[in-house]
Specification:
The protein has 7 helices and 5 strands, in the order H-H-E-E-E-H-E-H-E-H-H-H. By secondary structure, it is an alpha/beta fold. The chain folds into 2 domains: 36-187, Leucine Dehydrogenase, chain A, domain 1 (Rossmann fold), CATH 3.40.50.10860; 188-233, no CATH class. It has a 5-stranded mixed sheet with strand order 1-2-4-3-5. A hairpin with a 5-residue loop joins strand 1 (37-46) and strand 2 (52-63). It comes from Halobium palmae.
Length: 233
Amino acid sequence: MSDEANPFESLQEQIDDAAAFLDASPGVIERLKHPERLLETTLSVEMDDGSVELFGAFRSQFNGDRGPYKGGIRYHPNVSRDEVKALSGWMVYKCAVVDIPYGGGKGGIAIDPDAYSEAELERVTRSFATELRPLIGEDRDIPAPDVNTGQREMNWIKDTYETLERTTAPGVITGKALDSGGSEGRVEATGRSTMLTAREAFDYLGKEIEGATVAVQGYGNAGSVAASLVEDL
């Protein structure tokens, strides 16, 4: 049993703390503490050697009051129901505080991508995309890259969706490759925004950023880019 805090319980506690400052009914607050919809499925996928493995997969659509659900899809052995529920909830508030017209979503597969071939990962991803098909769309739910996923996985999801729907739908997912309708700068966008936020925070506080030290927690899609850009400030 892990000693780590349950992320979904942490989210709910944060909402309760914020509710103390709001003139909102208990019913509204309670609604904001739970996802509107949760897909939990088991993917049955054939491996390169002909064997079959099972993978738990999830997609949480937390709240869509402000617009389509928006949030990434991650591949990690520790992906769980409560993790994606919490992360989808935090996406709601991240979009809301900067007035972006999206709701919050998050998904993932409990898998160690380093343990599988590219062909196996493609079959896993396309299997998940098939399960997601009824839930996603540019006006419904728009997935994106997250931990251990990127342009390659997003292209697979887009291609699977378009094949099944018999349509062209570049807006069904973000983080695609440029030749698949992606946006320039997308790969480094999260890390660059971290650098810009740090720079603006120093300006706001009236402090000099020259000579400041930086601690980076995690060195993935966001952390590695942020560390490189902050070093140049």
